[in-house]
Amino acid sequence: MLTSQFRPEGLPLLIGSLPVRDHEEAARLVFDHTPEIPLWVQLPAYPEEGMIAQFMPGLPGLTAEGDKSFIHTEREGFDEALVAFYEEYMAVLEGGTDIDNSRFALTPDMARGFFTFMDYIRAAASEPVALKGQITGPVTFTTAVKEQQGRAIFYDEQLRDAAVKLLALKARWQVRQLARFNRPVIIFLDEPALAGFGSSEFISISKAEVTACLNEVIEAVHAEGGLTGIHVCANTEWDLIIDTDVDIVNFDAYSYFDKFILYPDPIRKFLEAGRLIAWGIVPTGNAEDIDRETPESLVAMWEEQAAQIGTLGVDRATLLAQSFITPSCGTGSLSPEHATRVLWLTRTVSDRIRNKS
Questions:
Q1: Sequence spans of domains, the chain
Q2: pLDDT tens, 274-317?
Q3: Which of 94, 101, 190, 323 is most buried, by the most CB atoms less than 10 A from its CB?
Q4: CA quadruple 177, 36, 188, 72: dihedral positive or negative?
Q5: Considering the entire predicted model, what is its pTM?
Q6: CATH T-level assignment (fold) for domain 7-53+109-356
Q7: To 10 degrees, the CA torsion angle through 150, 44, 241, 33?
Q8: What is the mean pLDDT of residues 138-154?
Q9: What is the sign, positive or negative, of the torsion defined by CA atoms of 322, 325, 326, 327?
């Protein structure tokens, strides 16, 4: 298993967004606070860097009308566009087309943060332990992208398949780019929509369909030698996530640990298999929590939670070796001051937990 070759040892790790307008500033903040495992940053100040919009280019039938983008299956030429998509997909997989020159590569106009990140890695004063990228998870993506009638493309098997394959190769492209630095590469699938799994909104979506979507992207990352994480920023059916092929589960430990621990057997087996937990112990949900909490209070919270995991037969040293410390979610919707405090808390909490070991 890939995770057997990598242990985070409680290092801090960030989630992908920041509330600034300058990609250089964003990269500096990342490298100042998490130089061991830096990541590229999405800036929601730019509409094209929204978590859905950023990964839509390349979809067959993609149509823009005003500020709205959707998949137009009734537009002339759609069938030919769909065939061309699959031909290019197969050509990339079989080596006939360079992925760098395909629709599956991120571009500077849509993902400036990725290219700034690459420049910062080259100029870094010290070699990182690992590198992190991210992509919108396939369930969130396909339930957010609509066709011309306003129906989510998840419910059209052909469109869903194309979208998942697009995400899989965009994730694979990231791994291939970052692997040039000879460091472990981690790709997170951001899946906020899974917080609604099992609700009436997603009542017609089965666990098998969700698992198949997730595993297709995960397997693409694994094919390039990368590690995968799934980030859900609220509660979900955690056994669904744990039962995929994912290497890292990232959950909001600040607000939802009591829900996470309701799955003791899956958690124990997950950790026994050598897989990793990313603890979203630093709050991002509201300014009051960010202002109130201190490194001491958050360390105490993590130690209490770690002790509960310990009752499953996982000792603290083993758990820490298989853990990251993260914010509970991205900071793109916060004020710059609160976002900076979240980064500082994440760094400081990680340092103090590791220094106690």
A1: 7-53+109-356
A2: 999 999 999 999 999 999 999 999 999 999 999 999 999 999 99
A3: 323
A4: negative
A5: 0.96
A6: TIM Barrel (3.20.20)
A7: 180
A8: 97
A9: positive
